[in-house]
Design goal:
Layout (H helix, E strand, L loop, with lengths): L2 E4 L5 H8 L2 H7 L11 H11 L5 E8 L2 E10 L6 E8 L9 H16 L4 E7 L3 H9 L3 E3 L7 H4 L3 E7 L8 H8 L14 H12 L10 E6 L2 H10 L10 E7 L11 H18 L17 H8 L7 E8 L14 H4 L8
Parallel strand pairs: 4-5
Antiparallel strand pairs: 1-2, 2-3, 3-4, 5-7, 6-7, 8-9, 9-10
Bound molecules: flavin mononucleotide.
The site of flavin mononucleotide has 10 residues, from loops.
């Protein structure tokens, strides 16, 4: 499954090797080919300068096999309503296999859902009918060349297309994530998870609702290899043992009112928010609760290692990292077996 994330410096070499393919470059951009940076360092320097601006969004589409596509999104107006896409599958082996469609759908969700664009525009090289068809199938419409805002940039070899926010695919990025999230129990790549991503994931957890706003859930992210090693001595049988980071979920059994304690609901909401944030950032995870709250009290031993005070209980761990493989989809009951309208139906 393809995912989209902001461009990272480590993507530069893949993109640079693609840019050296002049034919492919010309199908992507009307920019002057000979003016474009070609080494990974040049690209990082170029994007480093541009990404200070809050109208420019270089993005990378990737899956377990690596970088699949590259795109830039840039607002073309001061009000930040009109967003222009430049879009390419950089991995030549993946062209013509539906990846473009998948990447476009992610990009549209991001453009309309996160960046709140009102219109998305793009140009397609006239010798690239497959891409043109892909854009039309995704809901774009042709704009007569003389009306296209960027005609003067693109030139006459290009057709312009656009999509208004009203015509966007009905699913938002959030809905896509909810539907596509899967428990991942495989191996992780050794690549560390940047602190800023761990903070974003934990912020998503803390943003969850809690009964009477008692905020009974606390979190500890572990990314220090020495501490991870210590935790692994007590996680037996091992789970998530190759993950470069783990988020530990702590709860306090505080009464919300009278005899009502919503601690379980509170941390469950926080965990689901974090699982979705983890997927949104291109990582995978699994809700490990049964495993660590069993009779052997692994969670308690982990809490001891992390210096957790007695009034908190460590109830769940979420490994975080880039997966080496795809998660297996579990068999789920059909909609009709579990959800109805207006009355219970057997
Ligand atoms: C409360 C709770 C505890 C869980 N504990 C474990 C666990 O200890 N080990 C594990 O492999 N998965 C655990 N899971 C993940 C479930 O097995 C998984 O969500 C379920 O099989 C459905 O798969 P899906 O997440 O891909 O939809 C737990 C999930 C929940 C909600």
């Amino acid at each position: 499954m393809l995912r989209l994330r902001p461009y990272k410096e480590c993507d530069a070499n893949v993109i640079a090797s693609w840019i050296k393919d002049e034919f492919a470059f010309r199908q992507w951009s009307a920019d002057r080919y000979d003016h474009y940076p070609v080494t990974g360092d040049d690209i990082n320097a170029h994007y480093g300068k541009l990404s200070d601006a809050d109208w420019f969004y270089p993005m990378t589409a990737f899956d377990e096999s690596g970088v699949t596509g590259h795109m830039i999104m840039r607002f073309t107006d001061e009000e930040k309503k009109v967003l222009r896409f430049g879009f390419v599958i950089v991995d030549a082996d993946k062209r013509g296999q539906g990846y473009g469609k998948e990447m476009l759908s992610l990009a549209l969700s991001y453009a309309f859902g996160i960046l709140k664009a009102q219109k998305v525009t793009l140009g397609v090289f006239e010798n690239n009918p497959a891409a043109h068809y892909c854009y039309l199938a995704a809901g774009f419409r042709d704009v007569p060349t003389e009306q296209a805002e960027y005609y003067h940039v693109l030139g006459e070899d290009w057709k312009c297309l656009e999509m208004e926010a009203d015509a966007r695919p009905y699913r938002s990025l959030a809905l896509d994530l909810i539907m596509q999230r899967r428990s991942y129990r495989g191996r992780y790549k050794a690549e560390p998870v940047p602190r800023e991503d761990l903070v974003t994931i934990m912020e998503a957890g803390l943003a969850a609702p809690s009964g009477c706003n008692k905020q009974t859930t606390s979190l500890i992210a572990v990314d220090d290899p020495a501490v991870l090693d210590k935790l692994r001595t007590v996680i037996d049988p091992p789970v998530g043992e190759t993950a470069p980071a783990v988020i530990c979920v702590l709860t306090q059994r505080i009464y919300a009112y009278r005899d009502k304690c919503f601690a379980v609901q509170d941390y469950s909401a926080a965990i689901e928010n974090m699982l979705l944030a983890i997927e949104a950032l291109g990582y995978r995870s699994c809700w490990y609760e049964g495993h660590i709250t069993d009779d052997d009290r692994i969670g308690y031993q982990m809490a001891q290692i992390l210096g957790v005070p007695d009034e908190y209980e460590l109830v769940c761990m979420l490994p975080v990292g880039i997966p080496e493989s795809e998660p297996k989809a579990p068999v789920k009951k059909s909609f009709a077996e579990r959800a109805w309208f207006n009355s219970f139906q057997k």
